[in-house]
Amino acid sequence: MNAAPSQDLTARQALERMLELIRGIHGITDVTPELLQRTMGKDVRRIEEGHFGFGQRLPGNWAFSVERYLLQPHDVPQLELGFDPIPNAEAAAVTACEPDYAAFTSSLEGMGFARHSACGEHGRWLYDAFDKPGIHVEVHPMLARAKDDADAQGTRCVQRVLLR
C-alpha cells in the first residue's frame, strides 16, 4: 500500500519502496515522475526534461533524496537514492539500518539480478553491482556504528543506490 503524497518516510520505507520500484520496471526509462510519485508516495518535483525527484529530512540530521537525471555528457538516464548527513550540521551516528546492506542486496538477487563486486585501487571493495537485461544497479555501503563505540565492527547499511 502506498502512502499519501508528502507523508514523511522512514529510511526503511524509502529502501523498501526503492526495491518495489526496481521490481516493477524493465529499464530506467520506465521511471516517470508519475511512477516515482506513486511508488514512493511522495510529491515529485520536476526540475527540467528528464530530471525530477524529491528529498526529505530524517532524524539525527540525516536526509535522503531520490532523483532521476540525465548523466552527462551522453544524457544517460540514472536514478539515485542516497542517504547523506545534512550539510553544516553534526549528524548523529547511524546505529541501525533496516533493511541492512545484506538484506537489501539479497532482495536484488532474489529478483534475478546477477551480483558482482566493484573494486578500486589495491583491490579495495567499493560496492556491489547487480545486472539483469535492461537494468544495472549499484549498491554503495555505509558502515553504521554507535558513536560511543568507535572500535565496534558495526552494521553495513545502504548509503546509495544507483540505477542505470
UniProtKB/TrEMBL annotation:
It comes from the Bacteria. This is Uncharacterized protein. It comes from Dyella marensis.
